[in-house]
Amino acid sequence: MVTRDLSGILVNIGWTRIKFSIDGSFAELQDKLRGKKCFDDIIKNIKSLSEIKRKAESELPRIGFNVVISNQNYMDLPNIVELSHKVGCDEILILPVTVFSEEGKKLKMDYNQMIEFRKIIKNCLPKLKKYNIYSNMNKFIDLRFVEKTNTMHEVMMEEAEKALIREQIKKGKKLIEDVKEDPKENFMTAPCFEPWSHITILSNGNIACCFNNYVWETNVTIKKNSLKDLWYGDYFDKFRKEILTRKLSQACATCCVWRVFESRSIRDKLKGYDKSILNRIKVRL
To answer: Can you tell me the distance from the alpha carbon of 105 to that of 43, in angstroms, rounded to the nearest whole number?
Structure first.
């Protein structure tokens, strides 16, 4: 719970970002989706944090809403935008529901709802710009990222194959295999960059490159190994080699769609590097 005292500490130390799970613009909807009474306390704490930031003339921490989108709340999205502006929110990140249970299946939007959701997003974009609130909503105009939350490994491979084709055309190569066989180009068009950019550590010490079955099922723990040895050693290299084969495991099916957007961003940044710099990138094969 983010108390007023804790909010003051976060502002004083320059904490960069704090996110709140908001799935509804009013208590009845939020509390129903979260399974407990929490809306009033969350809004109270956000307002308190915003007030402390204003008095300290600080832009940090940035306040964010994380919104899980389902068939219960997608129509409430414009109201969530208004609420975020009212309480001093800096960003809204949405995430369509991923199904992990029979109850989860009941929350998945059908096709007609998805079409309506896309229209709602387009209507929200001008308000976000007006209020200067950052959001990833525009990315979900592409309904693949709404519909395929349980087959995200397929989407990641689709994105990688598109990147391969672009490189093939740019390089004037006749075969996509020519791009795949080049270590640098194969890295630039990899379906995922998590093993090079991310570490997940659970409270029990389990460590892996991402928050899927790998980290829950591993026997490797930070309690018995140094972070340096794991990151630069065989353990993380195993994940990197797997990605560079361009084959994703079934565990990647429920990967967070935000990782797809991150991979896009990394590819774009890699394209901007000078060739001499790119040549120095160490990709262990």
So the answer is: 29
